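Appendix B. Raw example, untouched.
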Amino acid sequence: MTHRTPWDPETRRDPHSFWNSVRVEAPVHVFVGPETGTRYHMITGFEEAAAALRHPAIGHEWQKHMDREEVEFETGADDGPFAALGRNMLFLDPPDHTRLRGLVRDAFSKRTVDRLEQRVRSYAHELLDEVEGDDSFDLVEAFALPIPVTIIAELLGVPAEDQPRFREWTKTILGTDFEAAQLAGMHFVQYFNELAEERRADPRDDLVSSLLTVEEEGERLDHMEFLGMVFLLLVAGHETTVNLIANGTLELTRHPDQQARLAED
């Protein structure tokens, strides 16, 4: 049986063998969290996963399935920064999930997405120009990390002079030091509280203004939902992009035939 857990350093170094053994051994596993002792159920079997997803007692609002002490450990406090930042679609069930999806859908118009694609291409070239001629460089620090953080900041309407702070908060919030993440989360919430007030008084052509003004059938985002959506964009856009670029590049170095195919494309 598998004795490693998802949190073990060895799992991070070699995740594929770990998850393969989990899938082979049983369709359902229970892992105990290293800090709180919370029991996490990992479902890897198709039929079992389909049944769980259909079950009315299983949903995204994990706070409903944890006691107060566990919730406070995960969020810092009932009214801590991560409690506010957690009010987003990932952690909500219908009808709230459905309502939020409908509200934010129009904020991501085709015009916004097209403009974003052009900016990403331009910024990627800028970053590559900066390291051109170097014998070596850190792919994550010089390329993978700056792209999502900078683009998300610009998309939200964070002024250029504030973006260094935004990048530092992002790095800390997504880091492993919980107390530092709590403090950075407080700064993040305070900053977007103030930015929201500015945009309510003077809307701009940015996502913060769009999220504050979007309306569907008389429904609007409340302030906690606004903060949650901003945080969701930060996390979803940051981790996925950085990991995709870093892991994709690593795999290309391991498979030169695929690297050659990419170069020919």
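End of appendix B.
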